[in-house]
Amino acid sequence: MASLESITQSLSGLSITPAATVSHTAASSPQAWREALEASSSAPKSFELIKTLVYKPKTAKTATPVPLVVIARENTDVISGSVAKKLNLKEPRLAAGDLLTEFFSLDKNSLSPLVLNAETFPKVITAVDSTIEESTSLFAVRAHATDATLFLSGRDLFAYLKRLETKDTILKIIDFEALKTEAPALAAATPAKKEKEDAKIEGSVQIAVGVKKEVDFATWYTSVLTKADMIDYYSVSGCYILKPWSYSIWEIIQDWFNSKIKEMGVQNAYFPMFVSQKVLEREKDHIEGFSPEVAWVTRAGSSDLEEPIAIRPTSETAMYPYYAKWIHSHRDLPLKLNQWNSVVRWEFKNPQPFLRTREFLWQEGHTAHLTKPEADAEVLEILDLYRRVYEELLAVPVIPGVKSEKEKFAGGLYTTTVEGFIPTSGRGIQAATSHCLGQNFSRPEMFNIFVEDPNDPTRQGKTYVWQNSWGLSTRTIGVMVMVHGDNQGLVLPPRVASVQVVIIPCGITVKTTDEGRKTINDKCEELASELKKAGVKAKADIRDGYTPGFKFNDWEQKGVPLRLEIGPADIAKQQTLSARRDTGVKSPLPLADITKSVPALLETIQEDMFKRAQDTYNSRLKEITNWDDVVPALDNKCVVVLPWCEEEACEDDIKERSGRSSEPQDERAPSAGAKSLCIPFDQSRWTPIEPGKTKCTACGKDAKRWTLFGRSY
Amino acid sequence: MASLESITQSLSGLSITPAATVSHTAASSPQAWREALEASSSAPKSFELIKTLVYKPKTAKTATPVPLVVIARENTDVISGSVAKKLNLKEPRLAAGDLLTEFFSLDKNSLSPLVLNAETFPKVITAVDSTIEESTSLFAVRAHATDATLFLSGRDLFAYLKRLETKDTILKIIDFEALKTEAPALAAATPAKKEKEDAKIEGSVQIAVGVKKEVDFATWYTSVLTKADMIDYYSVSGCYILKPWSYSIWEIIQDWFNSKIKEMGVQNAYFPMFVSQKVLEREKDHIEGFSPEVAWVTRAGSSDLEEPIAIRPTSETAMYPYYAKWIHSHRDLPLKLNQWNSVVRWEFKNPQPFLRTREFLWQEGHTAHLTKPEADAEVLEILDLYRRVYEELLAVPVIPGVKSEKEKFAGGLYTTTVEGFIPTSGRGIQAATSHCLGQNFSRPEMFNIFVEDPNDPTRQGKTYVWQNSWGLSTRTIGVMVMVHGDNQGLVLPPRVASVQVVIIPCGITVKTTDEGRKTINDKCEELASELKKAGVKAKADIRDGYTPGFKFNDWEQKGVPLRLEIGPADIAKQQTLSARRDTGVKSPLPLADITKSVPALLETIQEDMFKRAQDTYNSRLKEITNWDDVVPALDNKCVVVLPWCEEEACEDDIKERSGRSSEPQDERAPSAGAKSLCIPFDQSRWTPIEPGKTKCTACGKDAKRWTLFGRSY
């Protein structure tokens, strides 16, 4: 038996340092183990137990047994039959003590993943819970004894196991959640069980994403994103892979927005991702806003650069020296450029896919105008396009308004914004911003961008240009997921779905002939093709070896707005059974006018999704004039509008006072105090403010406008 | 008078170090000055003289004179009248000695830009030749004496002047080339001169880009790119701004290529730009190919990162760990992902816009297949799309083939390529590559990407996936410019032109009434709108204040394929005069069937451009079997096909022997020796190789296949 020291030493050879090592009272059951750890002052506050299960699959009596070692989270359901089936093993049974002694010289209560080493790993089959791989949570691992425990991050534990792989022995990574839904499909080889599958699966997928949205929103969110195949975690922390299922949404947004801005005379361009230090630091307020998050390149190959070069956090200072060079005359105005690119903001806060990532995709528009009214008009025109991206494409309601002085873009004149709302967390979210920079970047001490004043007859006068910048990022996708997703997974609004309709063959049983199966599959393909011709993004899922139930679940997780089922009875009746993803409502549709009914139904889904989200936003937006009602409203997952004095000290005070909630704080939400989100343009929704009479809810001074406050992302 | 030491000192305060300081025999004229410098052993080999001209504009007699100081290259035509007009100054005259003494205490032969300092700069108007701003060439500058000279780069000189700017006194940057063509327009205010303008301008724009393609190709190239408004230089060396005029070409290529690969089942995705060191360095051969050029981020905000993070030079190693994770079964194959992104290769060689830049835009496709034949087929399918991008969109002929072992992609199995040709330099250019990576990245010691072999009934067998990667970059645009551009500037093939047809009002004279002018302008707009409806990218240029000649030149520089002129006579005859950019051929087109004739003419232009380029390529591709003919052919700006043994030693030898040309070498062309460019797929173009009989032109061993060799980019 290895000592704690020898384990720690072998880990350190792999550059793995346990977060903690704890000696405690001997504990054999998981329950006792957890209690012993919770009682220890040296154990981390939050952890999960790791279970290490050893099975003996059935083999010929004369063969050397090859045990199956399963390493999983405490709460992961390990269904040994499904795991074995997946790995082509037969009839697994929990191993008896003598086998454990033979292989690991340990009893089952002292076992840990660390019993696997260069010697033992090749002799067994090792299966690890896939959710451990990328987890940064801490896991309790037996230190080969019942009275000593090591704490390792999921990543470290996974890395340890991965390093044991040899050419012949590979670590098996098992998605136990997926296995649950696959299980019946895997079992389908046994014909007798087959007929009742659909019903069974429908039940078993109720918690397909593994965790309920209302219970653990943060975990639900990342679970939906990975199960719906939208993102994957990446080896550089804070960065995520956008898989086709999410990137296609971005492409749809790009196409729509490109067509609109091109109509406005905006042209696309591309500026380099690098910015020299000197240029980046030219505007003081601006750089103060960004400098803590700037990533610096200091080395190329093996040479140190003479001076470090920044990766753009945004491109104002990178672009505007050239605006100064290009703009000579009022005839060069307006200059309207946009680029689709990625920017880097190396945040040290908890990252969240789409919402806070170190690299993200966006568009940034940068325009220069002769006059302020022209710049002002464009700011609003762009903001309205942003509103439409959210409301018309993503079916997400937003409130357009202007930011307070405190919350405006660093270095700009004023910032307009569309503010979204995440009902589950009750938090506001800045959805997109359109800034008027005024003449702050064009003035002579800054980038010195001017033209001769065309209205000055002496031609000696200079006019410094009026500038705007505006940006919309892949945050759009995150907001959409949070607003519409449910406990089955993603729910996509039809207009941004790369598959709007999935057609699934049903009613194929063991008795179905090959010909009968072909008839059904062909009908599905034919229907898909007919719908495609009518402009619907349709797909027939005629994959072999998967049950309809598995497919239903698969496409539900991925949020496809509409499912059409085709079985023998449907063909006979010349109809198809439709099932809406957003409501679950099923109804038969005659095939005769399917190219009309399906597009109409998709439009209805789009509208219904928006309307439901808007009703929710409205019902959770509280008009409040009495301070005592503010914190309870926030705690009740609402945002509030207050008549507000518009003074920064009052804003700070509101944040401070509203942060004193008794509710536990979610670490992943950066702000527990309420910030001002925007001063809505449409003030008519609320009781008119009477100047000199209506008072600021927070400080009692004269109120100026209704202002939206909320806890936020 | 300042001494040489004090000048050097004041420069050093600005971190400017002269490349050389030279004492020489006193020389007053430019000619004598140049001779004195050329005779000095301490002067740089190559330099240009700077001329410093001081003018006294007309002012009221009682006013303090404000001299105009013009700083220009020796060969720049300074037309004082045009400069003055541009700057709103009147009747400039070269200043007399007493004014020079008064302002600078120097005579005209000792004057240099360095006489401008914090004290003198605000008292004068300073105009600098715009071509100096970004120039890295060395310029000779008088050290305030006729017998001493400093050498400064254009950038340093410009930076020196720029630093003198104050809130009230701005450095005027003059594009003297543009001024020449603008001059008549500026002069147009004088009605008497107006009628003969067109003819004059047509003559004066013969060298619109300032330097002839055949004489100084490298300068011509960058000049075309900047004058056509395709790029601008950027403050980080080796990076360029892609302005809308070039980025729109990239957008057209993207749209076309996206539609083709999506038909093939390829999906777009986005992987992060960062790669951890460990992951990047996983494939040894691969990283050896890239590591000298990798840019490393080591700092974020003010914190050093724990370990440096690379910016992707290409994404194989960043993506494939996830391919291993995503691919579990043959049902997950093929996996076909593509991304449109930028990559960074921090080259230390001379950068060239589009051809060799530190950051560039491209697409990279990465696919995984079950079988080698499937991977092989895709490699060629993609290569053919690349061929079509060049031939069908850019009208640039290419030769498809396979790279030699030496020239293949680092870490791959084999590389296919389309090879282009730049007639002016006689060099080949790798246009795009499609690689089969084989199982080199999927094998167990690498990324371990495998599936159960579906053909193995025991389900124990593993098949490592077959992978491809393929990329096409913005190099496309550079090749197109080099192949088609001429001494008037850019020539765009119609299919990639964002403006295919420009319509210019003509025949407006001083006698034209406002109504007459409106009729003509309206007709131009009407025609543009009619053509747009017919799918032609048409634009009417009805800008006021510019002569038709100026507009002709402007759009010719920018390469618009077709110009239509509309004047009173055209309207009367219901026709328009068309002028082709590629040939200059003019012909009248009846307006009646303009929506048919213009699209047809554009197609003809597209075909003619391709055919001419292909004829040139063919005529400069020499079939050679005698070594003695190789170097003369290369020196004669040809590429050669040789029967070749396909041995690497022989390839090295060819490069070595063919590098011994007597021709002066162009620093910007990285390889003076001939490399193997590709083994063309179509071998039937040349005399059949008889195995065992046909010998390698270079080494005399048995030849295998005809292989394309050439000096290259």
Can you put this structure into words, describing what you see?
Two copies of one chain form a homodimer. Chain A has 713 residues and is α+β, with helices and mostly antiparallel strands. Chain A has four domains: 4-182, YbaK protein (Alpha-Beta Complex), CATH 3.90.960; 236-484, Bira Bifunctional Protein, Domain 2 (BirA Bifunctional Protein, domain 2, 2-Layer Sandwich), CATH 3.30.930; 494-609, Anticodon-binding domain (Rossmann fold), CATH 3.40.50.800; 624-710, 2-Layer Sandwich (Translation Initiation Factor IF3). Chain A is built from 20 helices and 31 strands. In chain A, the strands form six sheets. An eleven-stranded mixed β-sheet of chain A has the order 11-15-16-22-19-18-17-30-31-29-28, sandwiched between helices. In chain A, a hairpin with a 5-residue loop joins strand 6 (138-142) and strand 7 (148-153). In chain A, helix 7 runs parallel beside helix 16 and helix 9 (244-263) runs antiparallel to helix 13 (372-393). The longest helix of chain A has 26 residues, at 594-619. Chain A is globular. Chains A and B meet through strand 10, helix 9, strand 11, strand 12 and strand 13 of A and strand 10, helix 9, strand 11, strand 12 and strand 13 of B.
List the helices and strands and how they pair.
The structure is a homodimer of 713-residue chains.
Chain A: H1 4-12, E1 20-23, H2 30-39, E2 48-56, E3 68-73, H3 80-86, E4 93-94, H4 97-104, E5 125-129, E6 138-142, E7 148-153, H5 154-162, E8 172-174, H6 176-187, H7 197-204, H8 217-227, E9 231-233, E10 240-242, H9 244-263, E11 267-268, E12 274-276, H10 277-280, H11 284-290, E13 295-300, E14 303-311, H12 316-326, E15 335-344, E16 359-369, H13 372-393, E17 399-402, E18 414-422, E19 427-438, E20 450-452, E21 462-464, E22 466-473, H14 475-484, E23 501-505, H15 514-533, E24 538-540, H16 548-557, E25 562-566, H17 568-573, E26 575-580, E27 586-590, H18 594-619, E28 621-623, H19 630-635, E29 639-644, H20 648-658, E30 671-680, E31 705-712
Parallel strand pairs in A: 2-6, 3-5, 5-8, 11-15, 23-24, 23-25, 28-29
Antiparallel strand pairs in A: 1-7, 2-3, 2-4, 6-7, 9-10, 12-14, 13-14, 15-16, 16-22, 17-18, 17-30, 18-19, 19-22, 20-21, 25-26, 26-27, 29-31, 30-31
Pfam families (chains A, B): HGTP_anticodon, ProRS-C_1, tRNA-synt_2b, tRNA_edit
Biased composition (Basic and acidic residues) (chains A, B): 653-669
EC number (chains A, B): 6.1.1.15
